[in-house]
Amino acid sequence: MTNILVINSGSSSIKFQLIKMPSETVVASGLVERIGLPNACLHYKSAKFNLSEEMNIANHSEGLKEVAKLLMDAENGVIKDVGDIKAVGHRVVHGGSTFFETVEIDATVKAKIKELFSLAPLHNPPNYTGIEVAEEIFTKAKQVAVFDTAFHATIPTKAHKYAIPNEFLEKHNIQVYGFHGTSHKYVSEKAIEFIKKYDSKLITVHLGNGCSITAVKDGKSVDHSLGFGPVNGLIMGTRSGDIDQSVIFYMMDTLGYTSKEVSEILHKKSGMLGLTGFSDLRDIEAEAAKGNRECKLALEMNAYRIKKYIGAYATAMNGLDALVFTAGIGENSSTLREMVCKDMEYLGIYLEDYKNKVKSKEIRVISKEKSKVTVLVVPTNEELEIARQVFGMIL
Predict the structure, then answer these.
(1) The pLDDT of residue 122
(2) Are 182 and 89 in contact (CB under 8 A)?
(3) Most buried of 191, 204, 245, 352, CB within 10 angstroms?
(4) What is the mean pLDDT of residues 96-103?
(5) Is 148 a catalytic residue?
(6) Is the pLDDT of residue 277 over 80?
(7) H or E stretch covering 19
(8) Per the residue annotation, which of 84, 148, 223, 321 is the catalytic one?
């Protein structure tokens, strides 16, 4: 058995799972959240011990060291020392035009990840920090990078190329890269296995603080809502999604914003936060239920944007077998799923209300029997997908 520690390092959080392979047994898991804030919190779970405690965690290094302490704790730990971990798998959001598969991390790989900071400013920097901290702590383990963009390498040129002069693709590699690939890959494979149709046409909808939607034909990504960077497409927690380029030029040339300020607005101050003052969909749904007009409108806008992409991708694939909802919002918000699937009879989508409201951590059908398109909720497991890819590489 091989112990693989999976790290998903965000801007203010670290998600982790220690997974024993090839049995795929989760030995320990948890989350360090609100890093750098006074109310930082460490959540840890294993068969022996559960913990949820506020503590002073100033940075990612301190957070990962606290995780390592718990994993190796003399009384409640699950490993004896850092040598028991054979590999650390890191989620890295943007692989650019360099990385299309899982790679062992060395100085060259780290340098390239750093070069891509500007393309994924919310993600690649903390991903990189997680790598550096893990190298310090787990000195005997192989460090492995799994890229979100890799699953989307199969998007054909007609879909990934922008209608700008050819030299921007040929010389500067400006194209659609796509993101959340680890999640889209995992849930699409689960959905295909579930519906037992391997020449299938699926649309997978990943809805969390970051959101994206993928057209998956015969198990391969053929189109995707996020592009060169992870800010366009669907409306997200703090990111704008699709916007007319002219708005950006107007903000800079007429309103006087710098490009850095515009980027900050579109990445961190827009989306549901910009529309409502809240970035957490649970808060927005609660406020909408109280009659808050801004929150109600934001939910309608969110659902409308998703519906437009569903229509486009169903057309592009000339059909649709299954619509898949996943990630934190996709798995838990029956309200948004209902809003997305409403008035979609033309595509043969009929949601079953009572099935949609069932709470479960299992894959499940939420459409009516008469629905031409099977609507599924498939819980994602990016950490397990990363562990599988890491294990396959180090064998």
Answers:
(1) 72
(2) no
(3) 204
(4) 82
(5) yes
(6) yes
(7) strand 14-21
(8) 148
Q: Name every residue whose Cβ is closer than 8 Å to that of residue 283 and which is 6 or more positions away in sequence.
A: none
Task: Report angle CA 15, 21, 25 to the nearest 5 degrees.
Answer: 65
Residues pairing with 203 in the sheet: 215, 323
Beta partners for 50? 45
| 3 state SS of 360 | coil
DSSP state of 59: S
DSSP per-residue string spanning 253-315: HTS---HHHHHHHHHHS-HHHHHHS---HHHHHHHHHTT-HHHHHHHHHHHHHHHHHHHHHHH
Q: Which two tokens stand for residue 259?
A: 């490009």
**Chain centroid offset of residue 284 CA:** 20
CA 70 to chain CA centroid, Å, is: 26
3-class state of residue 130 by DSSP: helix
**φ, ψ for residue 97, nearest 5 deg:** -95, 10
**Tokens describing residue 348:** 């043969």
Alpha-carbon torsion (196, 200, 201, 207), positive or negative: positive
322-326 and 201-207 strand pairing = parallel
Query: What is the pTM for the complete model shown?
Result: 0.88
Runs of H (alpha helix) within the chain: 60-71, 107-115, 124-137, 157-160, 167-170, 181-195, 245-253, 259-268, 271-276, 281-289, 293-317, 327-332, 334-341, 353-356, 382-394
Confidence (pLDDT) at 249:
97
- Residue 82: the pLDDT is 84
In angstroms, the CA 326 to CA 329 distance is: 7
Residue of 81 and 29 predicted with greater confidence? 29
- In this model, does residue 96 exceed pLDDT 80? no
